[in-house]
Amino acid sequence: MTAFWEGVLAGYGIAIPVGAIAILIVDMGLRRGFLSGFMAGAGAATADFIYALLAVIAGATLAMALAPYALWLQIASAIVLLALGAFGLRQARQIDGGQDAKPTVENNHGLPRIYLRFLGLTLLNPLTIAYFGALILGRDAEATITAADRLVFVLGAALASLSWQTLLAGLGALANQHLSPRFQRMTSVAGNLIVIALGLRIIILLVT
User: Is residue 116 pLDDT above 50, yes or no?
Assistant: First the structure.
């Protein structure tokens, strides 16, 4: 069980730091309700699961293989963040008193798209492989890891990530229920401006 709790800590370590994904999950819950926010978080958690699994199988090798494409992945990540931020700003403009009585839960046809959108966006960050790979390699130096240890590590990391993303979705949905439409709009605008700023930061770092 030690490997499981190490996976839990690793999952929280990669999920908790506030970044673009966390902001977008909260905004999704704020604008469309808990179910949509949960599907967004599930997509992000699935990406963490995939990268944790790849890391325990071939972390160092895979990180080296992705290294030549790091620049293009960063460019793609910046473009996606800018596009999502701009789209979020447009959606935030639709939050007003007239829409307060409308259902905020995404229809069933839209939920898979939300899941896939956040899965793809989170997969754009190859540093997650390096993160999990470093943890696995560090533990290898101290003790031999069995296949069962690797499996429970990955499960622990995935469950931790999912629990945190679910909390973010719940916070967004709670704000949706208890904050005024005007405050919801201000919060959504602020969050999406941060996402745009994160995208611009990537571009600035690439050209300087």
Answer: yes
